[in-house]
Amino acid sequence: MSLILSGVDLTTRERIISLFRSRPGEYIPGQKICSVLQVSRAAVWKQVEQLRDLGFEIEASRARGYRLLESPDLLLPTDIGSDLNTLLVGRQIHCQKETTSTNQLAQKMAAEGASEGLVVLAETQTAGRGRMGRRWESPAGVNVYCSILLKPQIPPRQAPQLTFLSAVATAEVLTELYGIDARVKWPNDILVGGRKIAGLLNELSAETEQIHALVLGIGINVNMTAAQFPDELRYPATSVRIETDELHLRLPLVRLLIQRIDFLYAEFLEEGFAPLRRRWEALFDLLDRQVEVDLGQRTISGVVGGLEPDGALKLFLPDGSVERVVAGDVRPIGR
């Protein structure tokens, strides 16, 4: 019986959970748990009590041992990494109950030598961030707050292309799992019915010609209720729960998201940006539409012509010229 997951550093508690998962619904004698984990009976009892405090329903029988009856909706490395079968992403998985932001933690771990493919998750963030320094609301236990460390051997000027990778992965997975029509909004939001369901924040550490670390930050509203969204939101928001009128376990979403990012990243490294650009444009409702773009200092309008090879938005202006938009808020004009 193996409790080793490639690239996943398991605590004693997670090893007990993994042991329960390997024998669903069965009693496992206490002595067997002690033998496999190389710990005392007192240590097993202590861990079982802590798991119960976390919401795990564990039945104990003096004659038969322990068995797991029910699990809470927690994101644990042992569950996420089991049989993930990815090439790169998810080889190391780090989960925390609370952190300032998963992006900050991933950057810190990268500076300390973490390997490419590291996945960082947290149940809540105390300082979650969106684009342009905006706050990202991060209530505990209901959403997905995830950061992925990549170290692509590409020029730093191409790094923005990978923003579209996480956007495509997130939109595709939301649609496949829940049957909702998730669409992309340039440059880094995911919308359902015009309301924001996920946001992306990529952060780069690089020199002129070399990327040291690229962190893909992904926040997905999964089980948030309307009452949990703050009143001062810049744009209307939604969640998977609101769209489907159901509560959902987050584990299948996290696992499929990691697998999809791993696939798209391998495709990107092999074939470049073109396949990814086609996937993104297929999810973009404003292609060939009349839009207004707020550039901060000025506002322009034109027809969206798609993505440039470097990820800039191509805009055909009324005078026939072409504007490359690298940052700004895009809003449709009419239908």
Describe this structure in words.
With 335 residues, the protein is α+β, with helices and mostly antiparallel strands. The protein has 3 domains: 12-70, Arc Repressor Mutant, subunit A; 77-282, Bira Bifunctional Protein, Domain 2 (BirA Bifunctional Protein, domain 2, 2-Layer Sandwich), CATH 3.30.930; 290-332, SH3 type barrels. It contains 9 helices and 14 strands. It has helices at 12-22, 30-37, 41-53, 77-81, 102-111, 161-178, 240-244, 251-271, 274-282, and strands at residues 57-61, 65-70, 93-99, 119-125, 144-150, 182-185, 189-192, 195-206, 211-220, 290-294, 299-307, 313-316, 322-325, 329-332. The strands form 3 sheets. Strands 3-4-5-9-8-7-6 form a 7-stranded mixed β-sheet, with helices on both faces. A 5-stranded antiparallel β-sheet has the order 13-12-11-10-14, with no helix packed on it. It has a two-stranded antiparallel sheet with strand order 1-2. Strand 1 (57-61) and strand 2 form a beta hairpin. Helix 6 crosses helix 8 and helix 6 (161-178) packs across helix 9 (274-282).
Q: What's the arrangement of secondary structure elements?
A:
Layout: H1 12-22, H2 30-37, H3 41-53, E1 57-61, E2 65-70, H4 77-81, E3 93-99, H5 102-111, E4 119-125, E5 144-150, H6 161-178, E6 182-185, E7 189-192, E8 195-206, E9 211-220, H7 240-244, H8 251-271, H9 274-282, E10 290-294, E11 299-307, E12 313-316, E13 322-325, E14 329-332
Parallel strand pairs: 3-4
Antiparallel strand pairs: 1-2, 4-5, 5-9, 6-7, 7-8, 8-9, 10-11, 10-14, 11-12, 12-13
What are the defining features of this structure?
335 residues, alpha+beta, Arc Repressor Mutant, subunit A, BirA Bifunctional Protein, domain 2, SH3 type barrels, 3 domains, seven-stranded mixed beta sheet, five-stranded antiparallel beta sheet, 9 helices, 14 strands, elongated, disordered N terminus
